[in-house]
Design brief:
Blueprint (H helix, E strand, L loop, with lengths): L2 H9 L5 H19 L2 E4 L1 H16 L11 E5 L27 H8 L3 E6 L33 H8 L5 E6 L5 H7 L2 E4 L19 E6 L2 H11 L30 E4 L9 H14 L4 E2 L4 H26 L6 H11 L3 H21 L5 E5 L12 E4 L2 E4 H4 L5 H4 L5 E6 L6 E7 L4 H14 L11
GO molecular function: amidase activity; transferase activity
Keywords: Hydrolase, Transferase
Protein name: Asp-tRNA(Asn)/Glu-tRNA(Gln) amidotransferase GatCAB subunit A
Amino acid sequence: MTASEIASAVVARKMSALDATEAALARIQQHDSILNSFTDVTADRARAKARAIDADIAAGKTVGPLAGVPFAVKNLFDVAGLPTRAGSKINRDLPKARRDATLIERMEAAGAVLVGALNMGEYAYDFTGENVHDGPSRNPHDTTRMTGGSSGGSGSAVGGALVPIALGSDTNGSIRVPSSFCGIFGLKPTYGRLSRARSFPFVASLDHLGPFARSVTDLALAYDVMQGPDADDGACTMRGVEPVTPLLDESISGLRVAIAGGHFQKNVFPEAVEAVSRVAKALGASRVVDIPEASRARAAAYVITTTEGASLHLARLRKRPNDFDPAVRDRLIAGAMVPAPLVDRAQKFRRWYRAQLAEIFKTVDVLIAPATPCTAPKLGQVNFNLDGVELPVRANIGIHTQPISFIGLPVVAVPVPLEPLPIGVQIIAAPWREDIALRVAHALEKMGVVAAPAPRGL
């Protein structure tokens, strides 16, 4: 069942919140030994919350739009009673969190039921979904393949239908990549739209939090209840709540849709080309817009990522270097040695690049681009061939996501259900126009062009 179906059934007393919770816990017990998406299952907490919802309904009290809906969160979110491991070995020694992350509080205020915390790449510095401490999360359509990262457990849990909604983070593509590989919908909102309070950071100037779901309606429901200012996150917008769920069925016929050209039409496998073509055809989009210096934007994102990440982890690198994933440790050490003038140049370029995209969005409402260059690679795969060049998989999975999150644009990743594996397409809008990206995604879903396929590997 989708989240909206569960909530409707719970409110109508056709199903109890406890029944919905027990069903999710049973699916987790049955399938997660294969998928390895969860690192913690909060069964007692979930049952207590579900019973409280059922009691409120029995008493005639109003419950939220996600009443009884099970959800889970990437384990960089603070969950009261658990150490916030952020995919690492080191963080397991931290004191247990005393309070939930803001977004968990808002989801539960809307009636959702937290059932656990999810596997992820160490300290979110990952595109594969492979974790050396907890093992790899596995793709629900082919368990020999990657989920994508770093929100790999979130992608696996929703793609495998263990929960209808999960929360993750996206710095350079970590919502959109797992959405693409696992065949689900994901929303990376505008930078600053959703609070990051009480989540473990990676790169503060690039980090976003957002939802995964199996339908656009569910994605919008989760997004709506999580909106709003939060003084606990200095980057969070002071804009009021701007609900998108009531707008999903509005016509998109007047929207100006274009295909991202240049960088976004290079370094792609045939399946990525086919996915973009299907979406463009359904939307009647033929105009191609070149995004100036997108490759340089990706390079600048790398510079900012590695230097900010290194600064965050310097004390841990000095005290416990051998407790890091070696691949993460080495990238962080390299970041600590990047000359300051390069960082300054990257930030100046960032301002220029943002201005260029602002000009494009004066004549375009939506840009379409691949989410990943290919469908999910094999677990442990080191290299792949992009445009005739042998390149490392880990570093290049985010080749089409990084130039977008670099300036914080809102994106909905939509799954195109190709055979044998799905692949995602980015629906990109101007800042603060999540409503447009979600409306387009919803229209594509109604047309049958995009859909979250049933898990094929379970």
